[in-house]
Amino acid sequence: MFRAILFDVDGTLVDSNQFHVLAWAEAFHAAGHDFRLADIHAQIGKGTDNFVPALLPDASAEEIEKLAAAHRALFARLYMHRLKPFPGARQLLQRCRDEGLKVMLATSASGRELERHLDVLDARGIVDGWTSADDVGHSKPCPDLFEAAAQRIGVAPDEALVVGDSPYDIRAAGAAGIRAVAVRSGLFDDEALAGAIAIYDNVGDLLDRFDESPLSGRSATGGQVARP
To answer: What is the Cα–Cα distance from 179 to 163, expressed in whole angstroms?
Structure first.
């Protein structure tokens, strides 16, 4: 029986992945590196410490930090004001609380970005806490964020469930010994999301099917993939 749900934010609760792709593309271009948007999107979900080396394996620590700063500035200036929650996001957080579950946010975003996400979701009075890239040594797909989130609310890995949109959420959860449910709203296909115990179109779909989902503790699916 799960006692806590650990939610990823970007691409899961907040519709932001495409804006991160564009901000990263501009940051790379300004530094003399051009990548296809699809190649950038394929790495979305990782924190900067893992994201930049995936595209620039020889990047120095200084170059990684410069790119990260450029991305943060571009995202804040051009896209932060355009963020919106996915339909049903806040209601799903509330439903989890109503079911007696602890609710944590665990994101590879910076603490500043997370603060904005909390405002976008109007979630401060719902969630029990959060962890961001600022709180740990390594971001997803390393397990640090989910481990820290579980520890912060005092649950064992087998008492928690992750909800995320990227393969890196699923890998990070697995590395932490936590099972994961995936949503397709981050625009990753089902093959990339393999390893999740169930897959839903988005958090609205998950909310609509809550009673039969792994989140409810009443699911009889046995971990089968949910289909539309």
So the answer is: 9
**Domain 4-15+84-216 and domain 17-82 have a common topology:** no
Helix (H, G, I), strand (E, B) or coil at 29: helix
Residues 6+ apart with CB under 8 A from 30: 70
Q: Which residue has the tokens 């600022």?
A: 134
Asked whether the beta carbons of 41 and 21 are under 8 A apart, the reply is yes
Q: Tens of pLDDT along 174-198?
A: 999 999 999 999 999 999 999 999 9
The pTM for the full model equals: 0.92
- Following CA atoms 136, 138, 143, 149 in sequence, which dihedral angle do they give, to the nearest 10 degrees? 20
Q: Which CATH number fits domain 17-82: 1.10.150, 3.40.1440, 3.40.50, 1.10.10?
A: 1.10.150
CA angle (17, 205, 209) in 5-degree steps:
145
> Cα angle at 68 between 64 and 69, to 5 degrees?
120
The Cα 203–Cα 210 span in angstroms is 10
CB distance 122 to 89 below 8 Å = no
Spell out the domain ranges in the chain.
Answer: 4-15+84-216, 17-82
Q: How far is Cα 168 from Cα 158, in angstroms, rounded to an integer?
A: 19
Question: Per-residue pLDDT tens for 114-159?
Answer: 889 999 999 999 999 999 888 888 889 999 999 999 999 999 999 9
What contacts 152, CB < 8 A, 6 or more positions away? 104, 129, 131
Report the topology of domain 4-15+84-216: Rossmann fold (3.40.50)
**How many residues does this entry show for the chain?**
228
